[in-house]
Write a structure and sequence with these properties.
This protein is of the alpha+beta class and about 300 residues long. Among the domains are: about 110 residues, Arc Repressor Mutant, subunit A, CATH 1.10.10; about 70 residues, no CATH class. Helices cover about 25% and strands about 5% of the residues. The protein is built from nine helices and five strands. A three-stranded mixed sheet has the order 1-2-3. A two-stranded antiparallel ribbon has the order 4-5. Strand 1 and strand 2 form a beta hairpin. Helix 5 crosses helix 7 and helix 7 runs parallel beside helix 9. The protein is rod-shaped and about 185 Å long.
């Protein structure tokens, strides 16, 4: 039976409580060394050795080196269900004080090398236990087969499809020279006087003349068209005809609005007559046609022959 004083011990770690419960469940003579416990539990030898030292400090274990009748020296481990209880067995050894902080704890000595390590149950310190049978060596684990790396599959490279170029728009048929506006042709041909780079061919003039005619129909004077087309040209001027075509299309002014009559002027009112010089007194007067003013007598008719 395992008492609650062990299972609920506040100073022992969970590993030490588990190791003590496992040792108390073993029969006499079972090996309880560090290596034997490491083969039974997944914890390493360092944690199991620390658990055994905890049990020794609190009186649950006592490990002593004794000499047998045949002269061999063995380490015998005594387990106590309740430390400090009166029993017929040897009293537990006085626990050694814990090492101060910062000092390394001595590693446990491999007890299996110096001889068998029997475990004696409480109050049963009789003859030493029979030496345990050697543990057979574990078979070597089979080597894992080499992993076969996947063979890379070639990725098909897409074949570039040539882009279909749009068919060029057919150029409009040139306007016959007989149908061209002579004033528009004169404006385009005279641009080279303003800038020598605006030298156009007859074909370019025939193509741009209708656009210039549209400017003239909207009341723009030829001089205004020349200034609009020749001012602020880009540097360098690579294609004069293309620049003029863009300006004629983009800068086309709107038509002139109709002239509104002044306030108070009706439709039946006419403009005043122009000023005329009197043939008799040379004074100025308003009249639709030249002649004499009202103050001068009418001119004498020529005498008949």
């Amino acid at each position: 039976m395992i008492g609650n004083h062990l299972l609920q011990h506040r100073a022992l770690s969970a590993t030490a409580i588990g190791v003590a419960a496992y040792i108390q469940s073993l029969p006499d003579g079972a090996p309880v060394g560090i290596k034997a416990l490491a083969e039974r539990f997944p914890e390493g030898e360092i944690r199991l050795g620390a658990a055994l030292r905890e049990l020794e400090r609190h009186g649950y274990l006592a490990r002593r080196r004794e000499r047998l009748e045949d002269g061999r020296v063995v380490t015998r481990t005594y387990s106590y269900n309740r430390p400090g209880a009166p029993s017929g067995g040897p009293p537990p050894p006085t626990p050694s004080p814990p090492p101060p902080d910062g000092e390394p704890v001595a590693e446990p000595v491999d007890e299996r090398e110096s001889g068998p390590e029997p475990m004696v149950e409480p109050e049963s310190m009789s003859e030493p236990a029979v030496e345990p049978a050697p543990v057979p060596a574990a078979e070597p684990e089979p080597k894992p087969e080499p992993k076969q790396e996947p063979v890379p599959v070639p990725v098909p490279v897409p074949v570039p499809v040539p882009a279909v170029e749009p068919e060029p728009e057919p150029e409009p048929a040139p306007v016959p020279e007989s149908e061209l506006d002579p004033e528009a042709v004169a404006v385009l041909a005279g641009l080279r006087r303003r800038d020598p780079r605006l030298l156009l061919s007859e074909r370019d003039i025939a193509r741009l003349a209708p656009a210039v005619s549209a400017w003239l129909e909207r009341g723009v004077e030829p001089g205004g068209i020349e200034r609009a087309l020749s001012a602020g040209l880009p540097e360098p001027l690579r294609n004069a005809a293309s620049v003029l075509e863009y300006r004629l299309r983009a800068l086309l002014p709107p038509p002139l609005p109709p002239v509104r009559p002044a306030a108070g002027v009706t439709a039946d009112m006419r403009w005043p007559d122009p000023l005329q010089n009197c043939d008799g007194c040379d004074r100025g007067f308003r009249a639709p046609e030249p002649g004499r003013c009202r103050t001068c007598p009418p001119a004498e008719a020529p005498a008949a022959a």
